[in-house]
Specification:
This protein is mainly α and 440 residues long. It folds into two domains: 206 residues, no CATH class; 217 residues, no CATH class. 84% of the residues lie in helices and 0% in strands. The chain contains 17 helices and no strands. The protein is globular.
Length: 440
């Protein structure tokens, strides 16, 4: 038992290190842009960053989550083959997204065009890099994922130091993408795979029973969040998006902690289909309680941050970020409390249940943000985000409670089977069918 606890602790620690390095790359980039350009240009970058977030959400739903949910307990060779297929899907998404962004860039205003064109160039590397991290987590190699993100951060910071004096968003974003590209090369070497885009059709058919829920769920959940922030820019101004992004950067460490624990929880739960229901409930409660306490404490510290420090970090963008900080912080508090139930639900492959939550949350979020922005600008939008997270929290708790009750009445042998449709798996080659774990 002590050896198991030690391994879990090491995995959790490396997950947090990896998430810190990944988020650090984004935070450093945001600070570099904020210090190099004016508030309007930072707002244009923030819009491009939100678009990047939408593509990341789509890629996780089609690649990252299926990898973790269905291959965490597979053998090494099957994990390797699945990783190659998943990276191929991510590469195709990045290339297709880049083409779309080029078209969009030429129908937008000149202030936004450079940031979108830069994002189009670096998007394939960014999406494949994130999928490499998910593949390494799936293989139980969190330390390798941390090493890959360390390479990204080091290369990017070195290039940022070279180009910051140019005062251009494009050069800064190209440095971001170049770091991701080098990171992809290192990750593929660690995984002993290359992206296999020719197997995209097989991947989609094999995991349709998951992605048919995960894809719209991510679009409705994370995607609607990013779309809501884009609407803030359309209704108010690009500076309003910059204000929200500035607050998100300050709250970044909380996102690091929450995402790191979530990335640890999902594969660990997925590897143990025989865990007792009571253990899963305690695990969810422990995760939520820990994150809730840390989030409240960190927010209290941020609210006492002197204005001089904020101005030193964000320059002209600081007043806007400070105005929305409390509301964005409370949004993080409610979101952190949902992390425990969400981790267990995803780990037990309850894709249909989590989809239902986001099916309601997405439209509510968009409507609330539209109303909040129209009445109070960036501040109103921030409070709308907080209110939505508070309203959806009970749904996560009640959904987990219902899932655990159903689990208690399910035989163990059936419990270890992934949630899927027979037609999807019958159409898939054996390599990409979910592995059935033997039970004692």
């Amino acid at each position: 038992m002590s050896r198991v606890r030690g391994r879990l602790l090491r995995n959790a620690s490396w997950n947090l290190v990896d998430q810190a390095l990944s988020a650090l790359s984004n935070i450093v980039l945001s600070v570099a842009v904020a210090r190099s350009v004016d508030a309007a240009a930072f707002g244009a970058f923030s819009i491009a960053f939100v678009v990047f977030g939408v593509f990341i959400a789509v890629t996780k739903s089609l690649v990252g989550q299926p990898l973790q949910m269905r291959f965490s307990h597979a053998g090494p060779e099957e994990q390797r083959q699945a990783a190659g297929s998943g990276l191929g899907v991510a590469l195709l998404l990045g290339l297709a997204g880049g083409v779309v962004l080029v078209g969009v860039a030429f129908v937008t205003g000149p202030s936004l065009r450079p940031a979108l064109l830069a994002l189009a160039l670096v998007l394939p590397a960014l999406l494949v890099q994130d999928s490499c991290r998910m593949a390494l987590f799936t293989c139980g190699r969190a330390r390798g994922a941390a090493a890959v993100d360390a390479v990204w951060a080091l290369v990017m910071v070195g290039l940022l130091l070279l180009v910051m004096g140019r005062g251009s968003v494009v050069w800064l974003m190209l440095a971001w993408g170049a770091g991701a590209l080098v990171s992809v090369v290192v990750a593929c070497a660690l995984l002993h795979v290359l992206p296999a885009p020719h197997r995209t059709g097989q991947w989609v058919r094999a995991h349709g029973s998951l992605t048919r829920y995960l894809f719209p769920e991510y679009f409705l959940g994370l995607g609607s969040m990013q779309l809501a922030i884009l609407l803030v820019g359309a209704i108010a101004a690009a500076e309003a998006v910059g204000a929200l992004r500035g607050a998100q950067v300050l709250l970044g460490p909380l996102g690091i902690l929450g995402a790191g624990i979530f990335q640890f929880a999902v594969p660990e739960v997925a590897r143990r289909p025989d865990l007792p229901t009571r253990s899963l409930a305690l695990f969810a409660g422990a995760v939520s309680g820990f994150l809730g306490v840390v989030t409240i404490g960190y927010l209290a510290v941020l609210l006492l941050l002197p204005d001089q420090w904020g101005t030193a970090l964000f320059g002209d963008s600081w007043p806007g970020a400070a105005a929305v900080l409390l509301a964005m912080g409370l949004s993080s508090v409610f979101s952190s409390l949902a992390n425990g139930p969400a981790g267990v639900l995803y780990g037990t492959q309850q894709a249909k249940s989590t989809f239902r939550i986001h099916l309601v949350k997405g439209p509510v979020l968009l409507g609330a943000v539209l109303l909040g922005t129209a009445t109070g600008g960036a501040v109103g939008a921030a409070w709308a985000l907080a209110a939505t997270e508070a309203a959806v929290l009970p749904a996560w708790v009640l959904t987990l409670r219902a899932a655990l009750r159903a689990r208690s009445a399910t035989p163990t042998a059936v419990r270890s089977e992934p949630e899927r449709d027979d037609d999807d798996d019958a159409a898939a080659p054996p390599l990409h069918r979910p592995v059935k774990r033997a039970t004692s």
